[in-house]
Amino acid sequence: MMKQGIILLVILLLLLRSNVMAEKIVFAIVEDFPPYQYVEKGQATGIDVDVLREACKQLGLDSEFRVLPWKRILKNAKEGRVTAIPSLLYKEERTTFLYFGTEPTHINTDSIMARKGSSIKVSKLDDLKNKVVGVIRGYSYGPAFDSYQGLKKEICDDHSVLIRILNKGRIDMAVASEMPFRFNCKKLGLQDRFETVYVISQHPTYTGFSKKALGKRGEAMAEKFSKMLRQLKANGFFQKTETKYLR
């Protein structure tokens, strides 16, 4: 009788343990996309990492951030080896293997930046004629800007070079994705030197959840995260996290 009681107790404890163990969401991120996701001192960090880790905590989920090359991220999501991909542009072809939530993780903004006090005003691309504008090699800023013929472009290898020559006055303006630009300004101690004078384009990005990994639960999971993202924006956590990386 006692033996049966012990067996029942062990079974009960195992059942309780399985109920207590939280589901883990494995996010696949890239190594170098600051300030959203990057690796520092061997650890995944960035705005996406902090926000999604907090979202998981609030939802009673465990989180893991796995750093992978971009092509492997997509492949692993298709195969169900990872649960989710943050900071994705919505594309119809991606809906074949991912569920997208309704709330953006963040908005990518491509802007024209100038030195504060320069008196530069831009209301349309034609205002850039005869100005020297810095761009980053290999980047696209949308078809309207990329195909515009009236520009004198100074091509830079990375954000740090772009920011330095703008600060020294060697170019009139710089075109960049605004958040990475501001993140690199902070690293260089130049975070208060520049201002946005024109917004070229804005694109919302989302967290996509693997259909293979989650099955039919994925759609509900995507919406749970959307709801939590809205809460984190409403209660100030999102804005506080952005400030941490940009100021």
UniProtKB/TrEMBL annotation:
Keyword list, A-Z: Signal
Keyword Signal: yes
Solute-binding protein family 3/N-terminal domain ranges (all copies): 24-247
Family membership noted in the UniProt record: Belongs to the bacterial solute-binding protein 3 family.
PANTHER family, A to Z: PERIPLASMIC SUBSTRATE BINDING PROTEIN FAMILY 3, SOLUTE-BINDING PROTEIN FAMILY 3_N-TERMINAL DOMAIN-CONTAINING PROTEIN
Protein's name according to its UniProt entry: Extracellular solute-binding protein, family 3
Organism: Desulfonema magnum
